[in-house]
């Protein structure tokens, strides 16, 4: 390709929208163009990179026996409702683009395809003789990111390879899982990337186990914890470790002490001259379950530790699925969590009794349940306004419109029964003329649907959990439930009852000891997730009735695996990992072109003749080559060549009089003078053709 004929424009300065180096370079070098927030056009150079990555992925996937297909991007809501993920993806995480067609059917643009592939398997797989089976696709995916950022790293539209396998047993699944581990390692190695495989949390995809593949880069959004011996690596969300040993407490006997202004662990320990390992801190969370009721969770954890909210979320879901919440006094059978948030002063304006004020910074493990407000017969206008403003984040104009729809004339109180009737009517007959757009009406309905079944904080007891780090503490320091006072010398079973459920929800940190070998100390690195493989088990097949008949004639749920790889994210990750002050440095295997011939003076017939000769012979030999035949200064051409990151630059300068050209290695900056006739063989060897 001749640059004079290519759709290619470079930028002199970094675009204001770009935050990390790879994003800036892709925009400056003319690889991508932003269309709208989180949506980019892949221009010719970028499309060649993506095709090369896709080719490597396809070769490695096919080598495992996987079969390529193409699944629809538009997915019906009923399949996601069967799996139980529709609410999670449209309300809790809110990452699915959801829409309604002209026949009032709900649809979504697929961020993933477990439901579609399971529905296909349900219809087409009948017997164990058809198994195992592995299907994959390369497809454009969609995520309604709240804050798209970093270019292709976190966009709203992206290219992904996703594969799905079906099995008769966990053993068969694990065999394919190991095949995918090897295939992914081959892919990233062939793409020239430095990467690390780590244990990971399965998130909304679910399943019994999962593994991420991280491209190591300082700008990575994920933190990886690993041991120097290479025997352990995990995403910080999943990582486990041994906490530091607790220091013996000097406090005895039990007593209440004045401790003004000590609302943080640091201030408290400085005031009492004690170690944070001697403190039990108590943290409040609010878990919103699928029926939109909210459970208030009180966590007791050692003072030097932090709550890992992913682990906490998983524990709460586990408690719900195992019916443990019912055993603890919660009557509803919860299935999933829509949201988990640390309780804050704004939300506390809704659920804390007006006459009481939480002793924030001084909370004890036995915080009284009486702090929780019970549902009133009437809601004050101020209370309802707080609910809309702080809980559901409504703007002022939407709050005003809601009140106008409820009642044209202002009133101090609203009967709860009237509110419930009104919001029930919203489902089928929203008075849109008082609100404005249908979109606003939908937001009001979604935000207030919690009131349909009653007050969202309808459970008037705290769900009390204790982290393992706090269980064995003796004579510890903790809050007193009174502002400006703590207690010291406290013990479980004496001054405070030990919570009924013990959990492991602490966040592992760099410097912790490894579980597999306490002599190994966890180190930290930043990574960009480019691949994620899951052992799904029967999560989707059981929910959606996808079964096969075994050798004994029994119908059993299919055992499934899922394997994702971000094609467009991988491309940008390569640049984030490999660049310098002058521009990109593409690994040879995925570079848009292997070489670029730069002609310092296109008006020099001799220079152009040699350039044309090399351009033709290199391409014929399989060395993908660009010809920079633009009428630009030599300095501009050299800077552009460095910016776009083509692995080798050939300069047809003054040396052609002696039968030589200059060849520059982009990665090393090494420059050599080669005989013109030797260039083809040299580059064929350099790119391993």
What report would you give on this structure?
Strands 3, 7, 8, 9, 10, 11, 12, 23 and 26 form a 9-stranded mixed sheet that branches. A 5-stranded mixed sheet has the order 16-14-15-19-22. About 4% of the residues have low confidence. The radius of gyration is 30 Å and the shape is globular. Helix 2 packs across helix 17. The chain is 30% helix and 25% strand. It has 689 residues and is α+β, with helices and mostly antiparallel strands. Strand 27 and strand 28 form a beta hairpin.
Output the keywords.
alpha+beta; 689 residues; 5-stranded mixed beta sheet
Our Rg estimate from Cα atoms comes to 30 Å
Helix content: 25-40%
Strand content: 25-35%
- SS field, number of helical segments: 20
Average per-residue pLDDT, rounded, comes to 88
State the shape.
globular
Could you name the ranges where pLDDT drops below 50 across 5 or more consecutive residues?
A: 430-454
* Major sheet characteristics: 9 strands, mixed
Distance between the termini: 20 Å
Q: Got a strand count? A: 33
Structural class: alpha+beta
Brief summary:
This protein is α+β, with helices and mostly antiparallel strands and 689 residues long.
List the helices and strands and how they pair.
Elements (H helix, E strand, L loop, with lengths): L20 H8 L3 E5 L2 E4 L1 H20 L3 E2 L5 E3 H7 L2 H7 L4 E4 L5 E4 L4 H11 L8 E10 L14 E11 L2 H21 L4 E5 L9 E8 L5 E5 L6 E3 L19 E4 L6 H8 L7 E10 L4 E9 L6 H13 L2 H4 L9 E6 L2 H7 L26 E3 H11 L4 H11 L6 E3 H11 L11 H11 L14 E5 H4 L4 E4 L5 E6 L10 E3 L19 E15 L1 H6 L2 E3 L5 E3 L1 E8 H11 L1 E2 L2 E2 L10 E4 L6 H16 L4 E4 L5 H11 L3 E4 L8 E6 L5 E5 L3 H8 L3
């Amino acid at each position: 390709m001749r640059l004079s004929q290519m759709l290619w424009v470079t930028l002199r300065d970094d675009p204001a929208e770009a935050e990390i180096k790879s994003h800036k370079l892709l925009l400056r070098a003319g690889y991508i163009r932003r269309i709208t927030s989180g949506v980019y056009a892949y221009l010719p150079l970028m499309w060649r990179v993506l095709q090369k990555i896709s080719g490597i992925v396809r070769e490695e996937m096919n080598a495992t026996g996987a079969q390529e297909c193409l699944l629809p991007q538009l997915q019906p809501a009923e399949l996601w409702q069967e799996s139980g993920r529709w609410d999670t993806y449209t309300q809790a995480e809110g990452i699915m683009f959801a829409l309604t067609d002209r026949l009032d059917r709900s649809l979504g643009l697929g961020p993933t395809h477990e439901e579609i592939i399971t529905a296909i398997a349900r219809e087409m797989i009948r017997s164990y003789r058809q198994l195992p089976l592995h299907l994959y696709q390369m497809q454009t995916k969609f995520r309604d990111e709240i804050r798209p950022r970093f270019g292709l790293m976190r966009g709203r539209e992206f290219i992904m390879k996703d594969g799905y396998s079906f099995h008769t047993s966990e053993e068969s699944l694990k065999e394919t899982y190991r095949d995918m581990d090897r295939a992914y390692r081959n892919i990233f190695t062939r793409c020239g990337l430095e990467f690390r495989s780590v244990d990971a949390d399965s998130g909304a995809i679910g399943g019994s186990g999962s593994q991420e593949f991280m491209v190591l880069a300082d700008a990575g959004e994920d933190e990886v914890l690993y041991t120097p011996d290479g025997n352990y690596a995990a995403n910080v969300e999943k990582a486990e470790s041994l906490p530091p040993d607790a220091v013996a407490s000097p406090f005895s006997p039990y007593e209440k002490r004045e401790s003004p202004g000590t609302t943080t662990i640091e201030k408290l320990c400085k005031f009492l001259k004690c170690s944070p390992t001697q403190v039990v801190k108590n943290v409040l969370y609010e878990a919103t379950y699928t029926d939109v009721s909210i459970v208030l969770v009180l966590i007791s954890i050692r003072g030097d530790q932090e709550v890992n909210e992913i682990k906490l979320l998983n524990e709460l879901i586990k408690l719900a699925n195992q019916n443990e919440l019912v055993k603890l006094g919660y009557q509803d059978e919860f299935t999933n969590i829509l949201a988990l948030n640390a309780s804050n002063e704004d939300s506390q304006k809704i659920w804390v009794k007006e006459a009481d004020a939480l002793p924030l910074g001084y909370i004890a493990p036995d915080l009284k349940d009486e702090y929780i407000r019970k549902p009133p017969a009437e809601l004050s206008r101020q209370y309802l306004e707080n609910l809309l403003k702080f809980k559901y984040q409504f703007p002022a104009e939407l709050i005003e419109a809601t009140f106008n729809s409820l009642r044209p004339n202002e009133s101090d109180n609203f009967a709860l029964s009237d509110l419930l009737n009104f919001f029930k009517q919203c489902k089928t007959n929203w008075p849109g003329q008082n609100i404005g757009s249908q979109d606003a009406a939908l937001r009001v309905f979604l935000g207030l649907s919690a009131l349909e079944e009653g007050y969202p904080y309808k459970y008037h007891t705290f769900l009390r959990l204790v982290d393992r780090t706090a269980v064995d503490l003796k004579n510890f320091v903790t809050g007193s439930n009174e502002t400006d006072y703590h207690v010291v010398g406290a013990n479980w079973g004496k001054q405070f009852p030990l919570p009924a459920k013990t959990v492991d929800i602490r966040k592992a940190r760099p410097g912790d000891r490894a579980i597999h070998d306490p002599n190994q100390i966890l180190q930290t690195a930043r990574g960009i997730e480019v691949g994620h493989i899951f052992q799904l088990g029967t999560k989707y097949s059981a929910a959606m009735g996808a079964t096969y008949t075994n050798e004994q004639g029994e119908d059993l749920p299919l055992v499934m695996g899922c394997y994702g790889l971000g094609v467009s994210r991988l491309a940008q990750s390569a640049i984030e990992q490999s660049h310098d002050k002058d521009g990109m440095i593409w690994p040879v295997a995925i570079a848009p072109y292997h070489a670029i011939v730069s002609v310092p003076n296109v008006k020099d017939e001799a220079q152009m003749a040699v350039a044309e000769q090399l351009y033709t012979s290199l391409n014929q030999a399989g060395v993908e080559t660009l010809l920079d035949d633009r009428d630009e200064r030599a300095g501009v051409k050299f800077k552009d060549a460095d910016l776009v990151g083509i692995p080798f630059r050939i300069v047809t300068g003054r040396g052609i009089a002696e039968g030589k050209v200059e060849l520059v290695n982009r990665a090393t900056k090494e420059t050599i003078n080669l005989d013109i006739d030797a260039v083809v063989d040299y580059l064929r060897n350099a790119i391993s053709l």
